[in-house]
Prior knowledge:
Elements: H1 6-14, H2 23-32, E1 36-39, E2 42-46, E3 52-55, H3 58-69, H4 79-88, E4 91-92, H5 96-106, H6 108-114, E5 135-141, E6 152-158, E7 164-169, H7 174-189, E8 194-196
Parallel strand pairs: 3-4, 5-8
Antiparallel strand pairs: 1-2, 2-3, 5-6, 6-7
Helix pairs in contact: 3-4, 3-5, 4-5
Amino acid sequence: EHSWFADMANFKATSIIPKDYTWQQKKKIFRDANYYVWDDPYLFKVGADNLLRRCVAQDEAKNILWHCHNSPYGGHFNGERTAAKVLQSGFFWPTLFKDAYDHAKSCDRCQRIGNISKRHELPLQNMLEVEVFDCWGIDFMGPLPSSYSNEYILVAVDYVSKWVEAVAAQKSDAKTVIKFLKKNIFSRFGVPRVLVSDGGTQFCNS
């Protein structure tokens, strides 16, 4: 099946435009190419927030929607929130918001829960709502035996998905932390709502 981004991927990888393209289509692909990045074997879309998100085909999109809506960490949120979670997870396709809305609307659990009236609801207590990549724990390991001048490992763990990011480091200082956050966290997962540390001086840069 011809995916929606196949022509753009071929153009970014080989600079070849389909022969049957009209002048208007050629003009459009040249203009749109500024917002795509090819990193073999994936094509990435540059978002309005300047973050890269991997372009996915429709079959993979269905699986991503299921994980971001139906899975234990999905939360069964509405279409807009589900689409936002997909973007935050680093994926993109043109009909994302429409597909997320349709997916939430067709979710059996959401429809059954949505039909419960207020008088049938049990009293609820306020809970802190944390989505995937919203809250990270960060800390240094070390000092360890030196390896290529590195004596520390800086580790960050997402509280919801348990995703781990780690780098070797020569020093355990604030400069190392800032570089790590910009390169490994902010640029890939967005700016988190909460960063949890032990309050060491390396995490309290003035």
